[in-house]
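Case study: protein-serine/threonine phosphatase.
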Amino acid sequence: MMFSSKNPNPVYSGGGISFLTGSRNGRFSYGYSSFKGKRASMEDFYETSISEVDGQMVAFFGVFDGHGGSRTAEYLKNNLFKNLSSHPDFIKDTKSAIVESFRQTDIDYLNEEKGHQKDSGSTATTALLLGDRLLVANVGDSRVVACMAGSAVPLSIDHKPDRSDERQRIEKAGGFIIWSGTWRVGGILAVSRAFGDKLLKPYVVAEPEIQEEEIDGVEFLIIASDGLWNVVSNKDAVAIVQGISDAEVASRKLIEEAYARGSSDNITCVVVRFHDLLSIPAFVEMGIGKV
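Here is what the predicted structure looks like once written out:
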C-alpha cells in the first residue's frame, strides 16, 4: 500500500452494508476514502447517510469539493441531505424536492455567511437510493460514473464554463467567461455551478442537473471529486473497481491511482456496489471509520 497509518497525510476511509428496498431483493455496500494529497489544506468533504423517511429506506451519498476554503463544503455535508429528506415532497416528487432543497440550502448558507470576508464555494455531487430508483444530482465538476453491463456510463456532466449551454446561461444572466489558465466565470472560477460564491451570483448557480436510473441496471457507482477525474478517465476508474469486491478497498485504490498519476488536488471517492441478497446470510449494518 502506498498509504499507511503512519503517513502524516493519511487516507480517511470506511464503509458499510445495507439492504435495498423496493422490488429488487438485494443489498448494497459502500466505501469511502478521502485524502488531502498535495494541497496545503483539505477542502473535500463527503457524506454517506442511510435513514428512514416516511417508512422508506433512503441512502444518500455525496462528495463536496470546496474552493476558496472549506466552509461551504462542510456546510453541505452537515445540511444538504437533512434539508432534502425533510422536504414535504421528498417521497412523492423527489426531483422537485431535490431542486428546491439545493436552492434553499444555497440561500441559507449565503445568509449565514453574511459578514464573512472570504468568499468560498463548493461543488455537490450526490447519489440518492430510494426504492428501486437511483437519482443523481450534480452541481459543479465532481462526477458520478456507473458501471452498467461492464461499461463506464457517466451519470453527471461536469459544469464547466466552456460548456456551450453553460456559457449561454452565464452570458444571458449578464456574466462572462474568459481564459485564465482555463476557462473561468468572471475570470475567477473554473466551475459554472456551485454553492456559495456570493460574489459570482447570479452567474454561478446551485441548480442541480438530475439523472434517474433503475438500480437494477447498475453494478456499481463511483462518486468522486475532480482530484480523481482530472487524471483518471471514467473507463479506467471503472476498470480499477471492477476487480475489487470490497467497496472501501476499491475507493482507496482509486485514490492511490490518482495520486500515482500526479493528481495535485484533494481526492475523495465513494464507491457503491449492488449485490444479490443471496450473497449475504443476514442483514449487517456497519459504520467503520479508520485512518
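For the exam, be able to explain this: The chain has one domain: 13-157+208-286.
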